[in-house]
Amino acid sequence: MNRNANTDMSGLAPLTGFAQIIEASVLARAQRGDMRAFATLYARFGQPCYGLALRLTGNTAQAEDLVQEVFLKLIETIRSYRGDAPFGAWLKRMTANAAIDQLRRNKRFVDADPEAMFAAADAIEANPAQKLDAAALLQRLPTRARAIVVLHELEGYTHTEIARLFGQSESYSKSILARGLQRLHASVAESQAET
To answer: pLDDT band at 124, cuts 50/70/90?
Structure first.
């Protein structure tokens, strides 16, 4: 069977997002500063980076800026990529870190008190059409809660990894995740009751 490098082990489903396999020769060229190799990396991973940045920040302009920031940083740091983890996983972590750093710079993580965070989010009203849209539901969560839900539930980060990213304890991550999921479930139930 002739399988291309970007298919899963069964040879059926193409790998997408950060799971794509990048050829060693492209990485080697990028590590030597070849801009065509960086263009290849951008073509393959620009959209997954944007999607993650958008889910974490909830803002298209910030997500676009983050992708540019991540790829500029990639040019500077790719020489440090040792291949211990798949390239996509390495880039995913770089993107998540950049998003969290940006949210910190924008003072959107200032409210460390979970009660205050969720109380402020309660004040946000959504129209009925938005209530069942996943992205709109995530937008109704406080910034930190949204980031933790996305990282844990969608991106597969562990509570230990999230705790390190946020400089908090694992129990804090678990608490925010539980409350965020509870809020999402309540929003869905409320929307279904209205229809």
So the answer is: very low
For residue range 44-74, what is the model confidence (pLDDT) as tens digits? Answer: 999 999 999 998 888 899 999 999 999 999 9
For the record, the structure tokens of 27 come out as 């990485």
Rounded to a whole number, what is the largest CA-CA distance in the chain?
A: 58
What is the per-residue pLDDT for 68?
A: 96
Q: Is 54 exposed, middle or buried (0-12, 13-18, 19+ CB in 10 A)?
A: buried
Residue 130 has pLDDT above 50, yes or no: no
Instruction: Tell me the two tokens of residue 176.
Output: 């925010």
Buried b / exposed e over 10-28, threshold 16 CB at 10 Å, is eeeeeeeebebebeeebbe
- Please state, in angstroms and as integers, the Cα–Cα distance from residue 155 to each residue in 34, 89, 151, 166, following that order: 30, 10, 5, 16
The label of the residue with tokens 């676009």 reads 64
Distance CA 133, CA 115 (A): 25
